[in-house]
Design a protein that fits this description.
Elements lengths: L2 H15 L8 E2 L2 E7 L3 E2 L4 E10 L5 E6 L4 E5 L5 E3 L11 E6 L4 E9 L6 E11 L2 E4 L3 E5 L1
Parallel strand pairs: 3-12
Antiparallel strand pairs: 1-2, 2-4, 4-9, 5-8, 6-7, 6-10, 10-11, 10-12
Length: 145
């Protein structure tokens, strides 16, 4: 393992083990961001959730994780996770090796079909977990009319 990659992973490991109230959206030069196509929509209209993982290091970062990362979550006004139903995603155990070059971004989109949900205010956030890296975005509010 190259010294820079090892140093990056050591920093990420130290940050991941820190007990804090929330998981950070950035650690060890990796940043997870979330964007919604719209923050107010009519019930039945789909919304697109875009999750972007960025390597802001001056060197590549390589991690092992599962094929479902990053993952979107939606909670209702009471804080109950409504998507995925049951509170967490079912993901098959297929590991991949993710390598991000310096400055590279990996983007994943998710289409939220809102017809099964009641009108109200929801919060959307994303998580990313691979090896010792654990990132989570701050929740973004969305209004479903």
């Amino acid at each position: 393992m190259r010294p820079r990659t090892f140093a990056s992973l050591a920093v990420v490991t130290a940050l991941a083990c820190h007990e804090g109230p929330t998981t950070p959206s950035a650690a060890g030069g990796l940043t997870l961001a979330l964007a919604l196509a719209r923050t107010e929509l009519q019930r039945g209209e789909p919304d697109t959730i875009t999750m972007t993982l960025t390597n802001s290091n001056a060197y590549p970062v390589s991690l092992s994780g599962d094929v479902c990362e990053p993952r979107p979550y939606i909670t209702d006004a009471r804080g109950v996770t409504v998507l995925p139903s049951g509170g967490d995603w079912f993901c098959i155990d297929v590991l991949i090796r993710l390598t991000l070059a310096a400055g590279e971004r990996q983007t994943r989109t998710f289409a939220w079909l809102t017809s099964a949900f009641s009108s109200g205010t929801y919060s959307v956030y994303a998580t990313f977990t691979a090896q010792e890296v654990r990132l989570a975005t701050q929740p973004t509010s969305l209004r479903l009319n």
